[in-house]
Write a structure and sequence with these properties.
Length: about 475
């Protein structure tokens, strides 16, 4: 066991290093305070997120220090940047690398897109983007349609009351499992889903691997999930080599088929598994959260709901009972997608993120020292009255002409070379799901108190229980 002196040095030396560096660069650093050692402003931010006052907390810092300030978050000196110019600086600057909590890389794997930089990141991201581009996804609309119909028939139809968030998470997991891994419904998919529920619980946990901790349970669930995904990958590789499946069958077979000149596009088994873990995690949480908050908003906004219902009725009336939605149908759901975008603007699933400075860099005359992290929050520009007129008003018409929104102001999907590669995939599953829900049901919220917290994703009170009622002309 490490002695108290060694443990003290482990914590104290990094702090002394950054304090000495801060003093060395004090004249160039932005205003602000690093606060107490290790703790800094971490507890204050986490408390604000839990109370759903994080935007106000950050606004208070901006009022006090301006759009660029220093603080300390999660044990690391941090520069907080805000504004369109700052967003662009963060998203396109090669000197800023992703900075994920250590727990994420330990659980999801070291060769995932969130961790990699340079050529490795471009190679892996390019492979995933090729599979998720619209030309590829058109052929998977029917598969997603089938998963949504099965989910509603099995989880919604026999109940007068349902809890939306866990159901949406279950649905998005099933869709991604089917599309990415080719997993059909059954024990293998159920077991993988169970592992991912435990895995996700520890992504933001303190990375101390002691028995019975959330992090320990998450690591064990990750090991089970990785074993299952590795077996799937090896099985599909054998099928691909024997000609028993096509490269476009699912994401795994597609990634396995990549070779390129001199084999320079080929991905290792570790890279395929690690990025499958990331895509399943990211797609599972963000889309389910967005659909939950769309349903939450539409329950209290009859005018917007009527607009969505009218649009979906126009599509449904030209289809026979049991017909599958098509890519052409989805292209007509413009208003429904604007509702999704406005929901994203007001309640982005990802509150903010971090980058790490790979070298000393400057922004607007202020120094960002090497090794410090940069923090950005999407809501700052998305709720800025100088950018979006009456930002607290829900108005889908804002997105009628997306080109009218200044660059790097709406950043719910990120931006630059690391913009979310699954935008189009998310659009398909959200539009298909909302079509069948609004065509079959009316609903009202069960909780009088309509609040939510962030942990770190936004989560409505009690998971958003709603009372269902069949529409007269449901499909």
């Amino acid at each position: 066991m490490a002695s108290p002196i060694i443990l003290a040095l482990i914590f104290v030396l990094p702090i002394l290093y950054f304090l000495i560096k801060e003093r060395r660069y004090s004249s160039k650093l932005p205003p602000g305070s690093l606060g107490l050692p290790i703790v800094g402003q971490s507890l204050a931010l986490l408390r604000a997120m839990n109370d759903n006052t994080a935007e106000q907390w950050l606004a208070g810092r901006i009022k006090k220090y301006g759009p660029i300030s220093k603080m300390s978050l999660f044990g690391t000196p941090t520069i907080f940047l805000t504004g369109p110019a700052a967003n662009k600086f963060i998203f396109v600057n090669d000197a800023l690398a992703p900075q994920q909590p250590r727990s994420i890389s330990l659980i999801l794997g070291r060769r995932n897109m969130l961790e990699l930089v340079g050529d490795d990141h471009r190679r892996l991201r390019g492979a995933v983007v090729q599979f998720l581009k619209p030309e590829m996804l058109t052929k998977y609309v029917g598969k997603i349609d089938g998963e949504v119909k099965h989910h509603i028939n099995s989880e919604w139809k026999r109940h007068q009351t349902v809890t939306v968030l866990p159901l949406m998470k279950s649905l998005t997991f099933d869709i991604i499992s089917s599309l990415l891994f080719g997993l059909e419904r059954g024990p293998q998919r159920d077991a993988l889903c169970k592992d991912f529920v435990e895995l996700l619980a520890g992504l933001w946990a303190v990375p101390v691997n002691l028995p019975f901790t959330t992090f320990n349970k998450s690591l064990r669930a990750s090991a089970h999930a990785r074993k299952a995904l590795t077996e799937i990958t090896r099985k599909k590789k054998a099928m691909l080599e024997s000609g028993h499946c096509s490269p476009s069958e699912d994401l795994i077979t597609y990634l396995l088929s990549l070779k390129g000149e001199d084999n320079n596009c080929a991905l290792s088994e570790e890279e395929i598994v690690d990025n499958a873990m990331v895509l399943l995690t990211a797609g599972h949480d963000t889309s389910s959260t967005l659909m939950t908050f769309m349903i939450r908003h539409l329950a209290n906004d009859p005018e917007t709901l009527q607009g969505v219902v009218h649009e979906q009725e126009e599509i449904a009336k030209n289809k026979l009972s049991g017909d599958t939605l098509t890519w052409n149908d989805l292209s007509k759901m413009k208003y429904t997608w604007r509702v999704a975008m406005e929901t994203l603007r007001m309640i982005p699933p990802i509150f903010g993120s971090f980058r790490r400075a790979l070298k000393d860099i400057e922004f607007e005359g202020h120094l960002i020292p090497k090794g410090w992290q940069v923090f950005w929050a999407s809501n700052i520009t998305q709720m800025d009255a100088n950018i979006f007129h009456e930002p607290t008003k829900f108005d889908p018409i804002r997105f009628e002409n997306s080109s009218s929104i200044p660059p790097y102001c709406f950043v719910a999907f990120g931006g630059g070379p690391r913009i979310c590669p699954g935008n189009e995939f998310a659009r398909i599953e959200i539009l298909v799901t909302m079509h069948y829900i609004v065509m079959q049901y009316k609903w009202k919220l069960c909780c009088k108190e309509d609040t939510f917290k962030r942990d770190p994703m936004p989560s409505p009170l009690h998971g958003l229980p709603i009372e269902l009622e069949f529409r007269d002309s449901h499909v």
